[in-house]
Write a structure and sequence with these properties.
By secondary structure, the chain is mainly alpha-helical. The two termini are 39 Å apart. Helix 4 crosses helix 19 and helix 6 crosses helix 8.
Length: 528
């Protein structure tokens, strides 16, 4: 019964959002109440700890809403300046095929944003950008979430590796690089299929009657892009370590994908446009804005994200000035919430919107209009996000109890380990997915479950590096179905209330990716 209680954080959201198709506001409120009840009755959490966790959730909600605001205000600003029209016209030169656009924008540009920022930012940026290119809102959100997976293990300049594995005995930079190399080796098989999976979901759910043909005709190019990306990641992990794998691999393949798409190499002659929003109207008048000028604000985003993370003095400055973190909430030392305002992707996105006005020579009124539009877009998602995070924080903090029980996530992991040890190499990536699904963070998933993964590997004599690499990649796969990422991605494309419908479409790719990681891990174990 305790296992069922711990699993309520998974079972109840699945029932309410996926099976019953409730909007997240209602479904996640029910889920949060159930988990709070389990925490209080079965886990013995004190009311003060639960209330502290709920306050922690409220603070974290503000941090995510700020990122949402930044992503939307940048897009709205660029729409008002005419930059989006120019970007759109630029894509018409590269390829009008929406399958190609999805791979370039959602997978490759999203991976670049992931490598620099992480924290669910890519889907918040690429989803609205796909909308601006004419995609149906639900196609944009679904595609953006699925595509933001392969790069997640090395997101935010390698944070899931460096922080996620930091509580393993003997953790050090050489150890992090060792796991990174192993992860990119496994991903040569698993991650290579992600661009193709993106196209499969796009054509299957949002196409008309030519789904199979439209999918198979893209197989050569998507596999080429996939193996080029994972191959580049494999090489960069060995040359430069874990920090810049996603950034360098995505930059490299963005160039290759753009050149091959423009030349039509490995691509079908027919252009697929069936995911087009019926109300979308392409501006036929040629924009006078230069393509570089139009894209410059996004380049500023990437540069500012990277500079604030790799330049020591700037990193220190942005982490210490305007630190809005809340520590020792209600006097409970273990419960806190970080909000480094200047370091936040939300601030960088908003600053980039202001810089766009200078670069593109537009009035300040442009951004005030964009701000009003942005607030209107995100206000409907506030309660859904808060309810989701309330469930997450109570679940995560459940180890702070009066019964000396392990936390709910650790109880789940240990129960799985005791019963599924014989097939653990196939279970390991799904434990990573499970952690990301609930907590919304590949870093937290790995931080929570890596010690258990390491312990199980020792007990059944599996290679530690392969198991930890599987955990890391699995946590990235879980990004596709993570509830608060789905809530955020839905909000930025104007689909608040459709979260369950989106998870239905991202669930199968997440499972497939997990299976592919398991197969790659099994083969690696046999060859060692």
């Amino acid at each position: 019964m305790l296992l069922i209680g711990a699993l309520s954080a998974i079972i109840v959201p699945f029932i309410t959002l996926v099976l019953l198709k409730m909007p997240a506001t209602r479904g996640m409120t029910i889920s949060a109440l159930v988990v709070i009840l389990v925490a209080y009755t079965a886990w013995g959490m004190e009311a003060m700890v639960i209330f502290s966790s709920i306050l922690q959730a409220g603070h974290k909600t503000l941090t995510i809403l700020w990122i949402l605001f930044g992503a939307i205000i940048l897009l709205n600003t660029l729409q008002n300046t005419g930059a989006i029209t120019r970007i759109n016209q630029g894509f018409q030169i590269i390829s009008e095929d929406m399958r190609v656009q999805a791979v370039i924008v959602a997978f490759l540009f999203g991976s670049l944003i992931e490598g620099a920022a992480g924290f669910g930012t890519p889907a918040m940026v690429t989803g609205p950008l796909l909308i601006a290119l004419g995609f149906k809102p639900i196609a944009a959100a679904t595609t953006a979430l699925i595509a933001d997976s392969t790069a997640v293990a090395f997101g935010a300049v390698g944070t899931p590796v460096a922080v996620g594995l930091s509580n393993i005995s003997g953790a050090s930079v050489p150890f992090f690089n060792q796991i990174a190399r192993q992860a990119t080796l496994l991903d040569l098989f698993a991650g290579t299929f992600i661009p193709f999976i993106v196209v499969v979901i796009l054509t299957t759910f949002f196409g008309k009657q030519s789904g199979l043909k439209a999918t198979l005709s893209m197989l050569p190019w998507t596999l080429f892009i996939g193996i080029t990306y994972t191959g580049a990641a494999f090489i960069f992990a060995r040359l430069f370590g874990h920090e810049f794998v996603s950034v360098l691999a995505s930059l490299t393949v963005l160039v290759i994908a753009t050149l091959t798409a423009r030349k039509g190499w490995l691509l079908p002659k027919d252009e697929w446009k069936e995911a087009k929003n019926e109300n979308f109207q392409m501006d036929k008048q040629k924009s006078k804005m230069g393509l570089f000028t139009a894209w410059a604000p996004y380049l500023v985003v990437v540069l500012l994200l990277l500079f604030t993370r790799i330049i020591p003095w700037l990193n220190t400055f942005t982490k210490t000035v305007l630190n809005l973190s809340w520590n020792n909430i209600l006097g409970i030392e273990a419960i806190h919430s970080d909000w480094l305002f200047l370091y936040s992707p939300g601030t960088i996105l908003t600053v980039s919107a202001l810089i766009a006005l200078v670069i593109q020579r537009k009035s300040f009124l442009t951004i005030t209009r964009a701000a009003k539009q942005s607030v209107s877009t995100i206000k409907a998602t506030v309660f859904a996000l808060f309810a989701t995070l309330a469930m997450v924080q109570v679940f995560s903090n459940s180890g702070l109890n009066m019964t000396d029980m392990t936390s709910m996530p650790q109880y789940i992991a240990l129960s799985f380990a005791n019963n599924l040890g014989s097939i653990w190499i196939f279970v390991a990536p799904f434990l990573g997915e499970l952690g990301s699904f609930i907590t919304g963070s590949a870093t937290v998933s790995t931080l929570t479950f890596a010690p258990i993964q390491y312990s199980v590997a020792s007990q059944i004599q599996l290679d530690h590096n392969v198991v930890l690499a599987s955990q890391l990649l699995g946590s990235g796969a879980g990004n596709m179905i993570c509830v608060h990422n789905v809530v955020a991605a839905s909000a930025v494309v104007g689909l608040t209330g459709k979260e369950g419908e989106i998870i239905q479409k991202t669930l199968v790719p997440a499972i497939i990716y997990g299976v592919l990681i398991g197969i790659a891990g099994f083969v690696a174990i046999q060859l060692l």
